[in-house]
Amino acid sequence: EDQVTQSPEALRLQEGESSSLNCSYTVSGLRGLFWYRQDPGKGPEFLFTLYSAGEEKEKERLKATLTKKESFLHITAPKPEDSATYLCAVRVGGYNKLIFGAGTRLAVHP
Amino acid sequence: ETGVTQTPRHLVMGMTNKKSLKCEQHLGHNAMYWYKQSAKKPLELMFVYSLEERVENNSVPSRFSPECPNSSHLFLHLHTLQPEDSALYLCASSPHRAREQYFGPGTRLTVT
To answer: CA-nearest residue of chain A to B53?
Structure first.
């Protein structure tokens, strides 16, 4: 069964304290891994797509990496505005079906 | 309007009511999706439309009925819902079925 697991469930950081979020997956044929950011009461906001092991993408303080079994979202010197829930999803099947993880709630304190 | 819009943003309905959620995408995409997001549960895909044809139905109860009249509009018709259907309902679109999905702000539904 296709599955996506994110850890930790919640993470509290001090401003400037770098860390990483994990997304591990078991799918029968990965066709893309997606990272989203979701603020309370809002829809998810697209961040990155990764397709093959070894691929990396960067955007401001965020960097996503992919291996054959997991993906990491590295946050460098986070700021309070980076506080949000970060969602990981994998694409399976022929019709862009995404399976989401439960997310990591990140809180960055000044 | 830009991106993906959803109306209403909040909806409270009784178990015997009938209501509809509306989604509109202004991105020129040709695939649209309905998701359900319940508290402390992952996003669940409900329906997928590609070029206005329903191509995925994730075993959703018949009290949820989708409609896609054209590539820009998507509806979710609701009737005789249960309290456990209370959730955030999210609409998304993508430029092609193999590309990233862009989400609307969601409709917060409460069934009383």
So the answer is: A95
